[in-house]
Amino acid sequence: MINFDNKKTILIILDGLSEERISELSNLTPLEYALTPTIDKIKDQGVHIKKVFCPDKRDPDSMTCILSMLGVEESIIPRNRAYLEAISSNIIVNEDEVAMRCNLVKIMDNKLQSFNGEGLSRCDMAFISHNIKTVENLRFYHISDYRNLLILKRSEEIMEIPDLPPHENMGMSIEDLTKDLLKNEELFKFIEDNKFVVNNNEYMFYPWGVSEAVKLPSFEELHGKTCSLICNAEIVKGIGKAMKVHIPDLKNSTGDIDTDLKEKARMVIKEIETHDVVIAHINGTDEVSHRKDILGKVLFIERLDREFINEIYNSIGRIKLIIASDHQTSSITGKHKMGPVDVICNQKYL
């Protein structure tokens, strides 16, 4: 858990920042290899440690790790994130229903080639998702880019569907990936009716990660402090709404490496004036890692240091500033990994 005992604290979560050393980077991590004068200054001023936020028996994903960082007990951390993503988009999930994530994925030679609609523009994905073929007893919602949600009736059959995240199962045969999904009549019809081809590339909608309703404690109940959350990723917004924190609107945030970092920095500086804690979440470090773009990750870390962390650091005076990764994401395999992550603070004691 992160310590929020100071009068004022800014926590910057760089999603998937940390990973093991890479031979192509002179046996350094992307963070070690990148030119980061502001982060280096913060390390010299304070402390840089390694810490594991993921509970032992859970998979290292953003929902689990961020909730653990915020002090939520493992016993009430949900199995999957789709319900919290529904909350973030004001989608109602009734007590007799479940939510599932639904990626727009690319197929090649009957294997999963891309988890994020590779080859399609944002406009393409939005158009296709808004023209989906609907299925009775199943509600479809387009969230952003390749991300969508399905809401359907809860059943034992649905609850027994194994969790096979697409970003963790690249190259898996579509038959193996969907065999349990296709046992359900509604999911079978939805998947089969919405396969399509664009420029000789095959695509489909892939439901995964069954999620039920959950009640989380508020941030103020846990820590006795007010909190503002600067983010765009649906899961993080969902966590924020469930924990009753303030979430200001951002105009140019994308949840990827093309996000407006200066806008986010300005919002952090503004929100710390009226809140005890400000949490800023940056998703681009995770997205670029999933794409296995090692150099892209290094360049984005350098841009983060220059356009985001530097602006905040030079504006906050003696306020406690913590920079932390939630989990490891390998830019070699594109997968999340269990293991220690970087935690950097401008004060000697976390």
UniProtKB/TrEMBL annotation:
This protein's pathway: Carbohydrate degradation
Domain Metalloenzyme: 7-348
GO molecular-function term, one example from the UniProt record: phosphoglycerate mutase activity
Keyword Cell inner membrane: no
One record GO biological process: glycolytic process
Transport found in the keyword field: no
Catalytic activity, as annotated: (2R)-2-phosphoglycerate = (2R)-3-phosphoglycerate
Protein origin, superkingdom: Bacteria
Keywords, in A-Z order: Glycolysis, Isomerase
InterPro entries (UniProt xref): Alkaline_phosphatase_core_sf (IPR017850), Metalloenzyme (IPR006124), Pglycerate_mutase_ApgM (IPR004456)
Alphabetized Pfam families for the sequence: Metalloenzyme (PF01676), PhosphMutase (PF10143)
PANTHER family for the chain: COFACTOR-INDEPENDENT PHOSPHOGLYCERATE MUTASE, METALLOENZYME DOMAIN-CONTAINING PROTEIN
Family statement: Belongs to the BPG-independent phosphoglycerate mutase family. A-PGAM subfamily.
Biological role stated in the UniProt entry: Catalyzes the interconversion of 2-phosphoglycerate and 3-phosphoglycerate.
Protein name: 2,3-bisphosphoglycerate-independent phosphoglycerate mutase
